[in-house]
Amino acid sequence: MSALRKYFANIFHSLYTVIVGMKITFRHLFVPAVTIQYPSVKLKLPERARNRLYVNIDDCIGCDQCSMACPVDCITIETIKATPDQDLGVTSTGNKKRLYVPTFDIDIAKCCYCGLCVPPCPTECIVMTDVYEFSEFDRKNLVYNFSRMTPAETAVAKERARKAEEEAAAKKAAAAAAAAAKQAAPVQPKPEPPQSPPTTTQ
Amino acid sequence: METIQAILSNDIVDAVLLSILPIVFILLYALVTLYTEMKVAAHIQDRVAYMRTGWHGVLQPFADILKLLQKEDTIAANADKFLFILAPYIVFIGTYGGYAVIPFSSIYIGSNINLGAFFLIAASSLVVIGILMGGWASNNKWSIFGGMRSAAQMVSYEIPTALAVVVATMITGSLNLQDVTRFQDGGIQNWVVFGGPFPLVQRLLLLPFTLITFLILFTASLAEVNRTPFDLPEAESELVQGFNTEYSGMRFAMFYLAEYANMFLVSAVAVSFFLGGWTSPFGSFLSGPVWGIFWFIAKGMVFIFLHIWIRWTLPRLRVDQLMYTSWKVLTPFLFVCIFTVGLILVM
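Output (C-alpha cells, whole complex):
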C-alpha cells in the first residue's frame, strides 16, 4: 500500500514541481534584462580604476624611478644631461628639469596595470587613466612613445652633452695635470715627521 | 489563364506542388523558431540575446544559416562515409514524411489517406534509424552513445505516443487527421481535450481522461523530438552533442532543421487530435480555409513556445528516470485511459 502511495505521490510531486519551475521561468520572461549592451552603454568606472598609463612629458624630470618600480619592465627611459648653461624650465610641481628625455616608451601590451609606477614619481607626471579601449591590429602600435623630442633635437642635445662632457673631461684633465704638476714641483717643503706613530712600528 | 489552369490540373504538377508546400512552411517556420528560441531563452535568463543584426537581431537566423553554409564540411577519417552522409537526410525524410498527412487547412492535406495517424507514427520512426546511423557512422564513442540512447528513448516513447493516439482515435473514430479535425469543428467546447462533441454527461466523464491523455501525449512528444528534459541523445554536458558531434556545416544544419520540423510535427499531431486542428475556437466565427491555416499554425506555435519554455526550465532526466517515466508511469496510465474511455463510449 505504501509503495502505491509513494508512486502516486511521486507523480504528483513531479507534476507540481514542473509547474512551480515553469511559473518561475515565465515570470522571468518579463523581468527586465540585466544585460548592459556594452559599446552603446558603458558602466561607470570606479574612481580609482587603473587602466591605460599616461605620461605628462612636460613634467617628467627623467629620474627613471617609474621604470625601476615596474615589475614587468615595460617602461623604457633614456636621458641626456643638459649643459649647465641650458635652462629646461621647471615642472608644474616646481622641480628643476636637468635632463632631456628623448625616449619615454611604455609597452602597454606588457603592462600589468599594477600601478606601482605611479607613487614613486616625484612630479606626479605618470598616471593611470580610465581609458580601456585601445586594442590594435598590430602589437607594435601598443608601444606608446611619450617623448616629443625629434631625432634632430636629440642629436643636437647629444652632441652638446658630448661636447660639454669632453670639455669637462679636458678641464678635469687639465686640473688634474695642474694638480699633479703642483704636487710634483715642491718635493722638499714637507719635512718627514720625526717619529713614526707607535702603532705602525710593527 | 487556361494554360495555367491546364498546368495546375496536371496530376504530376499537383503532386509536386503539394509536396513542396510543407518544405516552404518548414523553412520559414525554422527561421522564426530559431529566433524565438534564442529570444525566449535569453529573456527567461534575464538577458537580451541578439540585438545588433537588424532590429532586435531579426536578421540573426539568416546570418546563422549563412555561417552554416560557408562552413567546411568535414568527415572524420575513420567514419563510414556512406552512412555518415546519408544519416541527416534519413532523419529529415522521416520527419518530412509525416507532413504528408497533416491537414494545414480544410482544403490542404498532402495525402488524404485513411491511415493518416498510423502512417505518421510509422514514418517518424525512421528518425530513430537516421540518428542511430549518424551515431554509428561517426565512429566516435560519444556519438554511438548518443545514437544508442536515442534509439532506446524513441522506441520507448513511441509506445505512449501510439497509445495516446489510440485514445484519441477511439473518441474521434478516425485515423485520418482531416476527419479527426472535422469531428471537432464548432468551437472550443468540441475539442477532444475538453471531452469532445458529446452529450454533457459523457463529456464530463471523458474530461479527466482526455486531459491526462493529452498531457501524456505532450510529454511523449517532447521525448520523441529529443528536447529537454529528454535530450539525452544530445546531452552536450556529458556526450558532447551526442550523435551529431562529428557533423558540421550543412549536414549539421540538416539535423537541426529536422529537429525543428519534428517539433512542429508532434505539435501538429497534438493539435489535430486534441485541440481541434484548423478549426476556429469560436465556432463559425473567423473560420474558413485561410483562417484554418492561421489557427493551425497559431496552435502549433503555442506548442513550440511550450517546448522552448520547458527547455529552459527543466534539467535533463537521468536515463533510468527516462525509462521509468515511459514504462512505469505513462504507459500504465494510458492503459487505464484506454479502458475507461472505451467503457464511457460504449455506455
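The CA atoms of residues 68 and 145 of chain A lie 18 Å apart.
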